[in-house]
Amino acid sequence: MEQVIAGVGFEVVQFLVLLTTYLLSTHRASESWSFHSLAVKSAFLMALYSKSSFSRLPTAEKVLRQKCWLCLVYNDRLMSVAFGRPGLIQPSYSTCDFPPEDLDELPPLHVTRVIASLSLLHFKASITLSTIVADFAETLNHESLRNVPSPSASAIISRTVLLLERLSEWRSNLPKSLQMVDRDDLPDLKLSGKGELYSTRFRIFLSLRYLTSRVLFYRPLLDLHLELEPHEYLLVNSEPLGDIMLTLLKDCAKSCRLVIDIAKGVLRASGEGVNIQGAWWLSAHFVFNASLVLLGINLAMRQSGDISSHSWVTTALIENRNSVSDAVAVKRGLDRGNAVIARCRNALVRLAKSYDASDSLPGPDVAMLNREQGPSSSSQTGQDAQHEVDNYLPLDYNFDELASYSNFNFFSDPPHLY
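Predicted structure:
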């Protein structure tokens, strides 16, 4: 333990990076910050950010240090967004050359060359995406710390559009083997070999990161809508600004619904014996976040005034609400035995019922929230399921009592991520 705290040795840095990455995908994600801080400290002591510090080492050792530093930068960006804290690594130190694409120059691998090549491409795409997200998080941190005036609606829209353009450019540069997953891919996931399984895993993970990044970029726009006073809607929703905002919120909702659809597809494949996505906790986080945003978008659309002038708004409201019902069923299927997921599902059910109580639009029967939909990981009677959703955990439950829970499902045959 003293060696870990002191941060002595490259192996210690590797251990801390792996431990941080693991904790981020569990219910103990908040503990990852402490280990990440130690990893950053150790990496700076070893000057991993500078290639000159290990230029005399063999090629394989240099590549290991490059990848370790990039993983550290990636975790730093991810945690900055997840916890709303400034990153520990300054942007000037966040750049580093990618490892060589020539697999012969890489350290010994325990997978086929096809899978190794896919993993390297996935690694590069993830790092590049995190750069776009980090720039956005830095802007929000600057506005928060400097206490600058809130940007206008037109400024928020302009910034959002520019960020979406960067995401579109990132997506267009993805290799064919890592293209985004869409709804047409979900009903029937036929995997002919191990290479295709790994490719599907990487595609789904990148798709979830891409979609949740889009949702994140829309957040200031949604916040603006929800914070407006009733008398301010007439000003903000004036033509053409109001139409633009509603259209952007519609696009955000589409991304949220696709996140939930992907989780449904993953769960369906799992029921058929194909383990596409491990770390159910990560999937549950994406689904829960998407559901909350969908409810927020519906509230924003309803508060924006007369929706009868936009025929698609009514349809979008119903689609979003139906997707929330799907999310509840997905969370039940992801892991019924986990108390944290059950608590999130319980909160989502109550929020959805509160929304329904104030909604005059036709929507799903409230009972849809409390019955099984689609494949699940274990069997359960309807009465037990109802009890679990409504009474499993109160909303004021102490999360510290959940520290002993560790029944999360991970890859039985994990991909070798760089």
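Summary: Residues 1-110 form one domain.
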